[in-house]
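Lecture 7 notes. Example A: sequence first, then its structure tokens.
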Amino acid sequence: MQIPLGHILVLSSLLFSIGVLGVLLRRNAIVIFMSIELMLNAVNLSFVGFAQSMNSLNGVMFIFFIIVVAAAEAVVGLSIILSLYRSRRTLNIDEFNLLRW
């Protein structure tokens, strides 16, 4: 059974929109981090749809690259969030003023 490309792109755009809203509206660092991951997975879904419709492996190569970037982002981002939580005892990004004098 083959899913039409339009359905995959609509689902991908919905997931990406939810991720953007999560980044823009939420104040918790973990939720923002998960929203970024949701956006990356939405892009992966659209690449899967294009790779399936074009019978090409180029989309799969991009997916592999995005997964590697997401893994690196997870390692660095979670360590930064953990460090901030240990020093400030909060995950609210409005209370982080490390770059201010």
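Example B, a different protein, same format:
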Amino acid sequence: MARRHTPFGAAPRTPRWRDPRTRALVFQVVLLGAVALGIGWIVNNTLSNLARQGIASGLGFWGEDAGFGIIMSLIEYSEAASYGRAFLVGLLNTLLVSALGILLATLLGLVIGIARLSPNWLLRRLAAAYIETFRNIPLLLAIFFWYFAVLRSLPHPRHSIDLFGLAYLSNRGVYLPQPVLGGGPGWLIAGLILGVLAVLALHRWTRRRRNAGRPLPVYPLWLGIAFILPPAVLLAAGGLSWSLPALRGFNFQGGMGLIPEFVALLLALSIYTAAFVAEIVRAGIESVARGQQEAASALGLNRRQSLRLVVLPQAMRVIVPPLTNQYLNLTKNSSLAAAIAYPDLVSVFAGTVLNQTGQAVEVISITMAVYLTISLLIALAMNLYNRRTEWGVRR
């Protein structure tokens, strides 16, 4: 057998099939092909089984009449509406309860987390009891508690709980005053846009004053603009009145009614997630070096100023990543609404629409894609905020 000789002083050449980079490339191509073949076999097998059972496939069902009612809808909906509109109703209901749940859980968790580190013994113990109680109760059981044990146990509308003649609690829901826009919703949107522009301008002005050593109380000014400017625009445009709920016949008329399913789900999600948010806030505050607080005290800042100006800004870079996970969990946990018949995306689309059309593959795939999209958008927004927070701390 002839032996291959290499020039004197040159390193022996490695055969191509023994090159680690070549072998890695070959293995990746083989793995990719195996995955593609597996997915193709699953899709082909599913379509064959559906055709054998006479089940239609495709997305032609979107325009068909739904033929069923939904007890809560943020947009106009009737039984004559299409499956596509039913999907939109379920999606909006999911987004509503998720957005309000994230807002309430964040505010409640922030307060509980700060109270967990309070020097007051009673306040600290109450916060610890809240966290240990609610984070160790299964979420589904908490939803059942608020729905069956609390809201469904309220009296009939004729004997409802009267809250100063403004709001009423009964087993049919919570009835609150509803604002009536005299100038139409367009003026409300104009007022909100004007308020946002005013807050941005105020932010730039206060930042220049802070850099010049003349700081201003920013948050009271922001809250004042946010709560005063939009109503002022509405009053100037055509007035703002309130519709109060009143008992007429067998139920309340007027005002804004919140069905028990929505209230129970919102309370359970907010209270449950707030317990985890509180622990994240506590861990973030404790991650800030104690010397920072001592330095803030040496500069004459009181405890509230030290917490707001020194500790929390540094703790945010630790708080934001796990907080993102809690937001994602809350959004996904809202699918448990099907247990109490709240008309969310899973209950309406992956439940009623799937049962009526029988197109399980399309309906379940679309539902999974929607939750994946919502989660990715939340993660993207939180990552952008986290990057901005880290940049602000480094600066």
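Note on Example B: The first helix runs from residue 20 to 52. The radius of gyration is 29 Å.
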